[in-house]
Design brief:
Blueprint: H1 3-27, H2 33-56, H3 64-91, H4 104-120, H5 122-135, H6 160-171, E1 179-184, H7 191-202, E2 208-213, H8 220-230, H9 241-252, E3 257-262, H10 267-275, E4 284-289, H11 292-298, E5 304-308, H12 314-325, H13 337-347, H14 351-361, H15 368-376, H16 378-381, H17 389-400, H18 404-411, E6 422-423, H19 424-434, H20 445-458, E7 463-467, E8 473-477, H21 480-492, E9 497-499, E10 512-515, E11 520-521, E12 531-534, E13 540-541, E14 551-553, E15 574-576, E16 597-599, E17 620-622, E18 625-626, E19 638-639, E20 655-660, E21 662-664, E22 670-672, E23 685-691, H22 696-703, E24 711-716, E25 738-742, E26 760-764, H23 774-778, E27 786-790, E28 797-800, E29 810-814, E30 821-824, E31 834-838, E32 858-862, H24 866-870, H25 880-883, E33 888-893, E34 896-899
Parallel strand pairs: 1-4, 1-5, 2-3, 3-4, 9-10, 10-12, 11-13, 12-14, 14-15, 15-16, 16-17, 17-20, 20-23, 23-24, 24-25, 25-26, 26-27, 27-29, 28-30, 29-31, 31-32, 32-33
Antiparallel strand pairs: 6-8, 7-8, 18-19, 21-22, 33-34
Helix pairs in contact: 1-2, 1-3, 1-18, 2-3, 2-4, 3-4, 6-7, 8-9, 8-10, 12-14, 13-15, 19-20
């Protein structure tokens, strides 16, 4: 393994441990004084070691001794974490049940001796590090790159369209100003190849041009010096940044120039170059970088734009692969088609992987057996001594560039199976449970975790698999080749052990387990396991040997009953039994005093026992299921749970879904718990079902005490019981972004029109009259992106006026049985991209003015009358001309698709 990566993992372990030690020493006031002193001593030793690790990160050629040293540091960091957690177990009064040979104090003494041994080597390694750094100071670029070799058009497959687009941008002469284009993509995505192609097309149109490689090891002085030299300007021996800036600016004044900064890693380098560039004359700067966060932070006006590199489509990826692997004729032999397709899928549209693997395969015998051997050994070929190690070297540079606090977060992706996207919110909750998210003043842990994820996406290490309506990712993953890079690293560094087949032995030091196969029985003693995941469909037997477990995620396993052993896992922070068949949870769950997330979504649990109110650290309580049915969704599609009346005790709750507002007691007397919500002032998401009319005012009062509420869902007791939410006129939730109301409304509550941040509203079964047309109440919301009306309006016409719904992208109209006409005035909904019309039996034609919605990308029709659909068909549809600008038009009739595009 690359020692620099190993050092990064050890550094991350120490960094997180120091945060944990500080919190531990502060909060555990009842520690014995000798233990407190020992903990503080450990902290001092670790800070010294952390500083050495940061210094050593710049070593260019670490030797085996250094590799062993950082492994020792990592192991001791893990050992200290164990001691802290054992102390917590002691506080939970089960110390006698945990078999230990030493007391906590003795354990700390053992660790101190180990750290002292590590410290004894410190000065020698510091001297070695200084010597190596000084001797390597002339090494200008330690980031490995595979330079594009442009042979005709072989390596430019799939970039023809972006090449023309960027060349057109670079050649445009209308705007007399300097313009900048950041070309952003993950390592190996073809950024340099694309820009080299553009540069070759346009450079002769400029008075002067230059290409500079701006790798991470080059300082702003280095880059400025290179620029001045390449433009042919003389440089004095003692040139500094200020002098070079003036010289460069003077040389470029009144010239039209194009500059390429390839492989930018440091924002300050670009900022120093920017100061040297005169404006005007249609000059162009093109910057390639895998650091999308830098590109976003530099985008301070319309003169700076970003072009994001996309993966090659399956067709273009196959074309490039065949050109490399079958260089004689570019065609895949019929006997190799299946294995070629499987290999290509692992490349996931990444040109670097396709080209390198294709070139390697081009010299192998064209036999199915040889290619299958290669396919099965791909992971080993990607390791440091494998034939594809250059791919890993290129990809790992992005990992090495991460700050310590993000390295564990990224490595966490090794837990999840390939092609198994993880939900964004789930991932953030897991990071929090693991302790990876460090508190920031004025921010919730969830907000900080979202910030971490955004940076990893911007750095092109994690990819967004599916985007929500507001542009945020619903689920994320990592590139297939990136996963193959981090899997062996994760195992070697004892971060996570993945069990996906036969033959993987577990050691007693295993810290995280990811079970990715059917039926798994952990019978051996694994006292250090922190996290346990199951992704298989078979049974998983959990023993009582996971005393330090913090994360238990076994969603989707065939469980019928709640495993009693779980209530012995006293340090558990995250428990997910989602998509299982358990029907109840025991009262003893209250023993899990550290629990932060309880996820029982899509289970049969309908009641949470009163002792759960003792879980004061609980942040997420998710207990509901959807009753999915074919066709039109039923009113009671969401089944919630009966909460204890005094739910007010859970003051740290961030997310509560879906709680029943009223239930019947044994004496048929209604008990209300809505009043108890008023003390849950930290709530960000609240879901309420079965709301009685008379409880509306109480709910409004409670919501008024939730200043951080971002999402609110309210369902009435039945389709006949109205929702009364008019009492919230004085203190509506100002930060509300998503609002779901299911049930009759006498009118749209007046406070909704004041929700400045609202991006989505869904009104279902509202049955609003003509006099209470919802369009008038919602049309001025400045940031509304999605509007859904399902059986929400009883009038014959909806009119969207000019200048209204300025940000609306999705309009969803369903079951509006009396609707016969929709009018879209010119200038309304200028951003509309998706229009859904479903089960509107009296609507005779598409909205009047639909032809003016120039950004409309998709028109989806569900069970609409035959005359409506006929008018839109190609070759004779009377209203076809109105929709011919829409790229995608689909009509579904009894679940059968007709493509009208």
């Amino acid at each position: 393994m690359d020692p620099e990566i190993g050092g990064g993992i050890a550094g991350s372990a120490v960094t997180f441990l120091l945060v944990k030690l500080d919190a531990f020493a502060t909060r555990e006031w009842n520690m014995q004084e000798n233990i407190r002193r020992a903990v503080l001593n450990l902290g001092r030793e670790l800070r010294s070691i952390e500083a050495l690790l940061r210094d050593a990160a710049s070593k260019k050629d670490p030797d085996h001794q250094f590799t062993v040293w950082i492994q020792n540091v990592r192991d001791q960091a893990y050992a200290i974490e164990d001691v802290i957690d054992l102390f917590k177990l002691d506080q939970e009064s089960i110390w006698r049940r945990f078999k230990m040979r030493h007391s906590i104090n003795n354990l700390i003494q053992d660790i101190e001796e180990s750290l002292q041994s590590i410290q004894r080597t410190k000065e020698r390694y510091q001297t070695m590090t200084f010597t190596r750094i000084r001797s390597a100071s002339n090494n200008t670029d330690h980031h490995v790159r595979v330079e594009p070799a442009v042979n005709g058009n072989l390596d430019t497959v799939g970039i023809e369209e972006p090449t023309e687009k960027l060349a057109s941008w670079a050649s445009e002469e209308e705007k007399q100003r300097l313009e900048v284009m950041f070309v952003v993509g993950m390592a190996g995505s073809g950024k340099t190849t694309l820009v080299r192609s553009v540069y070759g097309k346009v450079k002769h149109h400029f008075d002067c041009h230059v290409w500079i490689t701006a790798s991470k090891s080059k300082t702003k002085l280095d880059i400025l010096t290179l620029l001045v030299e390449k433009f042919g300007c003389p440089i004095t021996q003692r040139a500094d940044v200020v002098g070079l800036t003036r010289k460069l600016r003077k040389h470029l004044l009144n010239k039209r120039y194009v500059i390429v900064l390839d492989d930018l890693w440091v924002k300050e380098v670009w900022e120093s170059v920017k100061l040297a560039l005169p404006d005007g004359r249609n000059s162009r700067i093109i910057i390639t970088t895998r650091r999308g966060d830098i590109a976003n932070s530099c985008r301070d006006g319309d003169s700076i734009d970003i072009h994001k590199i996309q993966p090659l489509s399956p067709e273009r990826a196959a074309e490039l692969f065949c050109l490399k692997a079958f260089s004689r004729n570019g065609r895949c032999p019929s006997g190799l088609e299946e294995v070629s397709k499987s290999i290509l899928q692992k490349c996931d549209g990444l040109p670097l992987g396709i080209i390198q693997i294709g070139r390697l395969l081009s010299i192998k015998p064209l036999t199915r057996n040889q290619w299958k051997i290669f396919h099965d050994s791909l992971e080993s070929e990607l390791r440091s001594n494998g034939e594809l190690s250059d791919i890993v070297k290129v990809l790992s540079a992005s990992y090495k560039d991460l700050p310590y606090h993000l390295r564990y977060c990224f490595l966490y992706m090794s837990i999840f199976p390939e092609n198994n996207p993880v939900k964004r919110r789930r991932l953030v909750r897991l990071w929090i449970a693991e302790g990876f998210v460090i508190e920031k003043s004025g921010r919730t842990l969830e907000e900080v975790g979202e910030e971490y994820l955004k940076e990893l996406i911007d750095r092109n290490l994690i990819k967004a698999n599916e985007l929500d309506f507001d542009g945020l990712p619903k689920s994320v993953g990592v590139h297939s080749l990136m996963l193959k890079m981090i899997l062996p690293l994760s195992h070697e560094e004892n971060f996570c052990t993945v069990c996906s087949g036969a033959g993987r032995n577990l050691t007693e030091n295993t810290r995280r387990l990811s079970i990715q196969k059917e039926d798994f029985d952990v019978s051996q003693d694994l006292p250090h396991v922190r996290s346990f995941f199951s992704f298989g469909i078979g049974k998983v037997k959990i023993g009582s040997n996971f005393k330090l477990l913090k994360v238990l995620d076994i969603q989707g396993t065939p469980l019928e009953e709640f495993p009693n052993v779980i209530t012995d896992l006293l340090l558990l922070r995250y428990l997910s039994l989602r998509n299982t068949n358990i029907k109840s949870i025991p009262r003893s769950l209250s023993d899990l005093r550290h629990l932060e997330t309880l996820d029982l979504k899509q289970t049969l649990v309908t009641k949470v026992p009163k002792p759960v109110l003792q879980l004061e650290k609980l942040r997420n309580l998710l207990v509901y299921r959807y009753n999915y049915m074919e066709g039109v969704p039923p009113f009671d599609i969401v089944q919630g749970f009966q909460a204890p009346k005094k739910i007010t005790a859970l003051k740290n709750l961030q997310k509560l879904s879906f709680v029943k507002a009223s239930v019947q007691s044994r004496l048929s007397r209604q008990l209300r718990m809505i009043q108890g919500l008023e003390s849950l002032t930290q709530l960000r998401k609240l879901g309420v079902v079965e709301l009685a009319k008379e409880d509306g005012a109480s709910l409004c009062h409670s919501i008024g005490n939730m200043p951080n509420l971002h999402s609110l869902s309210v369902t009435s007791l039945s389709m006949e019981v109205p929702i009364e939410l008019d009492a919230m006129t004085n203190n509506p939730p100002a930060l509300l972004q998503r609002l779901y109301l299911k049930g009759p409304l006498l009118k749209v509550p007046s406070w909704i029109s004041s929700l400045h941040d609202l991006v989505r509203i869904r009104l279902k079964w509202s049955s609003l009259s003509v006099a209470e047309n919802p369009i008038a109440a919602l049309q001025n919301l400045p940031y509304l992106v999605e509007l859904q009306l399902l059986d929400a309006y009883t009038g014959p016409q909806l009119e969207f006026k000019s200048g209204k719904f300025r940000q609306l992208k999705i309009l969803d109209l369903q079951q509006l049985e009396r609707l016969s006409s929709i009018v879209m005035e010119e200038g309304t909904s200028p951003c509309l991209q998706k229009l859904i019309i479903s089960h509107c039996s009296k609507l005779g034609h598409v909205p009047r003015g639909i032809d003016k919605l120039i950004h409309l990308q998709m028109l989806l029709l569900y069970d609409m009358p035959d005359p409506f659909v006929t008018r839109l068909r190609r070759n004779g549809g009377r209203l076809r001309r109105l929709v011919q600008h829409i790229p995608c038009i689909h009509s579904f009739k009894q679940r059968q698709l007709e493509d009208l595009s």
